[in-house]
Amino acid sequence: MTHSPSVPQTWDHEADVVVVGFGAAGMAAAVTAHELGAKVLILEKAPEGQEGGNTRVAGQGYLNTSSVESAIAYLTALNGPFTVPEAMVRVWAEEMCQNNDWLRGLGGDPQEHQHPPVGIEFPDLPGADCVHKFHDGPTYGYSYTWKLFERLVKERPIGILYETPAKQLIQNDITKEILGVRTAQGLRIKARKAVVLTCGGFENNQEMIRNYLPGVPYCYTSGSPYNEGDGITMAMSVGADLWHMNNYAGPSMALKVPEVRTSFSMQALHYSKQPPGGAIVVGPDGKRFTDEKYKTRHGKVPVNGRWLPLATPCPMFLIFDHTHFAAGPLYDGHPSHGWTQIVERYEWSADNSAELTKGWIKTAPTLGALAEAIGLSPATLDATVARWNQSCQMGRDTEFNRTLMLNPIVEGPFYAVELSPSMLNTQGGPRRNERAQIVRPDGTPIPRLYSSGELASPALRMSDLCPSVPHRA
Ligand SMILES: Cc1cc2nc3c(=O)[nH]c(=O)nc-3n(C[C@H](O)[C@H](O)[C@H](O)COP(=O)(O)OP(=O)(O)OC[C@H]3O[C@@H](n4cnc5c(N)ncnc54)[C@H](O)[C@@H]3O)c2cc1C
C-alpha cells in the first residue's frame, strides 16, 4: 500500500465491509455482503432502540415488480423530463423484480399472497401494472417490515456499533481509495474492502434544506431525527458529485414544537378524516392558498398539467373554531407510522388542554384578537373566514374546490396552530452509478465507496417507490 500521511497506523475496529447506517439499505448491504462471505460491521448513529431510521417508522409498504421492461417504462414515465441514465433505470428495474425472491431466500415473507397490491401513486403511467406494492402495517401493527429486517441482521454474526456516528471517510491521499471511517468519537474503523454509506438523507439539516429544497425556508420530518445529511458531507469531502438534491417526499403541513424532535400531523388536514367543526389554513397574508384536504402525492399537487410541490408560504396557520377544538384530540398519537407516534410516543391530551397550556395552540375570543396574537391582519383573517363560511353555506369551495369538511368557522373562542412544512424523506445525495459506486463529477468512481437507499435515490421522482437495495454491491 502506498504510504499516505492521513491514514492511521493503527485501527480500533476492522472489517471487510463497513456499513454506515442501520436502516433498510444498511440491512440489505450488510446481509448481502455477509452472505458473500465478508466480515461486516455496521456503524449506527442512534442509540440502541432508536436505530432503523425512517425504515423503522415507515408505512412498511414495499414494492416488487413483475417485469423488467414494464418497470423501466414506469420509472422512465415517472421521471418525465427529470431523466436519469438508462443504465441506472435498468439496474433498478432488474433488482426490483428480484425483491420477493430475495426476501424469500432470506426467510422473509414477501407478503404477495396475503395482500392485494395497494397505493400505486400513478396508476395511469405506462408500466404501472407491473408494480405491486404491499402494506403490512395495518395487518400486523407498526414497524413490521423493519422488525424482519432487523432480525435478518441480528441472526447473523454482523457487528453493530450503536451511538457511533461516522464523521469522516479515511482516504488514501494518493490512490484516493477509501480505507475506512473515522467516527464522531474519534474511533478509527478499517474497511478492508469497502465502505457503504446508507445513512439516509438530510431531513434534519436545516442549512441543506435551505440550500437544496425548492420553496421551503425550513422543513421538519415525521421520520428519524438522526438523518442529518452526514453521508453527503462525508462523500463531498472525498470528491463526490451530488444529484437529486432538490427532490423530497413532501411537503405536507404539520405542527413542529421545540420540545419534540419530529412533527405532528393534525387530524383536520388528513384527507381521510373529517372531524367536526370548521378548519382552514392561511398563509402569512391571512389568506387561504390551497385545498387543505387534498390527498397530495407525497407532497406533489397538480399544477397546469404537472405535479409540483405543494406551496407552503411560511408561517402557515391552522385556524379553527371551538366546535373543532372540543370534538377530540387534534392529533392522533396511535402508533402506525411516523417517529412522533412510534418512538417519541408523545401523549396528546384528550381535550387538547395540555397543548393549549404549553402554547402550541393559541386561542382568543374573537377572530380579530386571534389574528393579532399570531401576527396576522385582523381584517384579512375576518374576510378569509367570512368567504370560507359563505362557501360552506353554498356547499362549494369557490376558491380551491375543497370538497371535504366543508364546515363553517363560527363558534368562538377561536384557535390557531402554527404549521411548518414537513416531509418524510429527502432523495438527494452523492451521485452513484449502476454498480452503487459513488462517483466524482467526471463520473469516475471513488474506489471502494458505495451507497444505497435514501442517500441519493437513483431517480429524481421516486415518490412512491422503495429505495433500491444494493443486491449487487
Ligand atoms: C413516516 C414515513 C412513512 C414512510 N412510508 C414508506 C412506505 O410505506 N414505503 C416506502 O417505500 N417508503 C416509505 N417511507 C420512506 C422510507 O422510509 C425511506 O425511503 C427508507 O426507509 C430509507 O431507508 P434507508 O435505509 O436509506 O434510510 P433510513 O431507514 O432512514 O436509515 C438511515 C440510518 O442511518 C443512520 N445514520 C444517520 N447518520 C449516520 C451517521 N453519520 N453514522 C451512522 N449512522 C447514521 C440513522 O440513524 C438511520 O438508522 C416513509 C418515510 C417516513 C418518514
Which features characterize this protein?
25% helix; disordered C terminus; eight-stranded mixed sheet; alpha/beta; Flavocytochrome C3, Chain A, domain 1; 20% strand; elongated; FAD/NAD(P)-binding domain; 2 domains; 473 residues; binds flavin-adenine dinucleotide
Main sheet properties? 8 strands, mixed
Question: Any idea how many domains?
Answer: 2
First-last Cα distance: 24 Å
Bound molecules: flavin-adenine dinucleotide
What kind of assembly state do the chains in view correspond to?
Answer: single chain
Q: Please tell me how large the radius of gyration is.
A: 24 Å
- Class per helix and strand makeup: alpha/beta
In CATH, what is the class of the largest domain?
Answer: Alpha Beta
Q: How confident overall, as mean pLDDT? A: 91
Instruction: Name the beta content range.
Output: 15-25%
> What is the CATH architecture descriptor of the largest domain?
3-Layer(bba) Sandwich
* CATH fold title of the largest domain: FAD/NAD(P)-binding domain
Number of helices: 14
Helical coverage, percent range: 10-25%
Query: Can you say what the CATH homologous superfamily of the largest domain is?
Result: FAD/NAD(P)-binding domain
Stretches where pLDDT falls below 50 for ≥5 residues? 462-473
By DSSP, the count of extended strands is 20
Q: Sum up the overall morphology in one term.
A: elongated
Task: Give a verbal description of the structure.
With 473 residues, this protein is α/β, with parallel strands linked by helices. The protein has two domains: 13-60 and 136-248 and 426-451, FAD/NAD(P)-binding domain (3-Layer(bba) Sandwich), CATH 3.50.50.60; 252-423, Flavocytochrome C3, Chain A, domain 1, CATH 3.90.700. The chain contains 14 helices and 20 strands. Strands 1, 2, 5, 6, 7, 8, 19 and 20 form an eight-stranded mixed sheet that branches. Strands 9, 11, 12, 15, 16 and 17 form a six-stranded mixed sheet that branches. Strand 13 (300-303) and strand 14 form a beta hairpin. The longest helix is centred in the C-terminal third of the chain and has 17 residues, at 378-394. The structure holds flavin-adenine dinucleotide. Flavin-adenine dinucleotide binds at residues 20-26, 43-46, 51-55, 57-62, 165-166, 198-200, 222-224, 226-227, 230, 337-338, 424-425, 453-455, 466-467.
